[in-house]
Amino acid sequence: MAAAILVVEDEPAIRELVVLNLQQAGHRPVVADSAEQALALMRDALPDLILLDWMLPGMSGVEFARRVKADAYTKQVPIIMLTARSDEQDKITGLETGADDYITKPFSPRELNARIKAVLRRLAPQVAGNPVEMAGLRLDPSTHRVAGNDRTIELGPTEFRLLHFFMTRPERVHSRAQVLDQVWGNHVFVEDRTVDVHIRRLRRALEASGHDVLIQTVRGSGYRFSARAED
Amino acid sequence: MAAAILVVEDEPAIRELVVLNLQQAGHRPVVADSAEQALALMRDALPDLILLDWMLPGMSGVEFARRVKADAYTKQVPIIMLTARSDEQDKITGLETGADDYITKPFSPRELNARIKAVLRRLAPQVAGNPVEMAGLRLDPSTHRVAGNDRTIELGPTEFRLLHFFMTRPERVHSRAQVLDQVWGNHVFVEDRTVDVHIRRLRRALEASGHDVLIQTVRGSGYRFSARAED
DNA sequence: CGTCAATGTGACGTATTGATGACAATAAAT
DNA sequence: ATTTATTGTCATCAATACGTCACATTGACG
């Protein structure tokens, strides 16, 4: 969820406040005190999101937003505008110009973070995932259901991800390290042997329909998910 | 093709004229003389279409349209705006704000009916007015009624929208974030946990007819509405 | 057959996550 | 002006998922 956020705001006090908040929330703020400077910064590196003050000296926020949205290269970067309270017309103009959301000043840190999160979430690709089926075992990510021979199987979150990982990469041996990277995430610190335990839990859950045999141990290497007979 | 049509118009003369026309054409007109009243009416029952005068005392037609289109629950209701002749700028603003068509005053009954028919035809499949039924639980958006095994169930506005959201997307798991985006709307900022509380309230209301079991918790992912057995 | 390393398995303390009731703020109704 | 509904948040409780360990079992190899 950490993101590079370009803050375009001419008032130093508000700017610092916002920057501090963003850092607190784990983001990487980049500041510009004018629209011109912001455009220059964006030529070097595109931010994940722009926080834009609507009232700026020189080029106005409206004009800046228009340019960002007019350029094919920068067009997809979401913009949240900061407007004075009650300036209803600004909000309308802003949203029409292409801003993705707005915050009225003064705003709380909580509101700021909530809106940033919401905008980033909305624009994140919907990783839907298609149902997978193999030897009578079916897993559907969108409904979060697993069935063996049409009988529902209950799995905990980790076992579910583990099974999904195996079913989408069958017939291949995965080391414990690889499984940890893919299923747990490549930045967690967990013992290799923990994988064994979750394999055990998954096998036990699959026993009811006899699908536990699909998870094969490859001694010295790791595990393999396969519909073919063992070894 | 009979439809419930909300007429938002402050001038009594025009209002009566339009209402008569609509009745003649077999529609069911509901009137509001201000944007505020219109919003209140829409909380009770969604119309199939809104006929909106652009010049209103109090909240303007633009602002009203913007609100309707900003709320996930009402956003798909089509809007036809009524503008004074030659007010070209209004048309542009109106269409940008989300109006689906416009008619310039004065207009003939024939023109009015033709446009209504056209808009309804174009948007018919998406209109939210269709009742939904599942496992003896019935929800009718146009009358704002819910019944479990033919016994009326009382729901607050939020619980109603929540249930409607679930019933129109059964089986699929929805994260709290997705539910917030779809049921609460885009610019509201509320905690993820608030969803839990409303799920609780909805479940309690459905307990009387035993339909509370249709709302399933998918630990680590969100909630699912399903007539099939739990997990 | 015995040894050692790799894997299986049950148990346990802790951390997460969801359920629930209470509460205050706000809006609506009277 | 009061009362009533509705809503969002929080504190607390309960459920269960998680990671690690200790010990059992297995398999390869001399």
Account of the protein in words:
The structure is a homodimer of 231-residue chains. Chain A has helices at 12-24, 35-44, 61-70, 88-97, 109-123, 157-167, 176-184, 193-207; strands at 4-8, 28-32, 49-53, 79-84, 101-105, 132-134, 137-140, 145-148, 151-153, 173-174, 215-218, 222-225. The mean pLDDT of chain A is 88. In chain A, β11 and β12 (222-225) form a beta hairpin. Chain A folds into two domains: 4-123, Rossmann fold, CATH 3.40.50.2300; 132-225, Arc Repressor Mutant, subunit A (Orthogonal Bundle), CATH 1.10.10. A five-stranded parallel sheet of chain A has the order 2-1-3-4-5, sandwiched between helices. A four-stranded antiparallel sheet of chain A has the order 6-7-8-9, with helices on one face. A three-stranded antiparallel sheet of chain A has the order 10-12-11. Chain A is built from eight helices and twelve strands. Chain A has 231 residues and is α/β, with parallel strands linked by helices. The A-B interface holds A 88, 92, 95-96, 101-102, 110-111, 114-115, 118, 121-122, 142-145, 152, 154, 156-157 and B 62-63, 66, 96-97, 171-173, 177, 180-181, 186-187, 189-190, 218-221, 224, 226, 229, 231. The structure holds a DNA duplex (30 and 30 nucleotides).
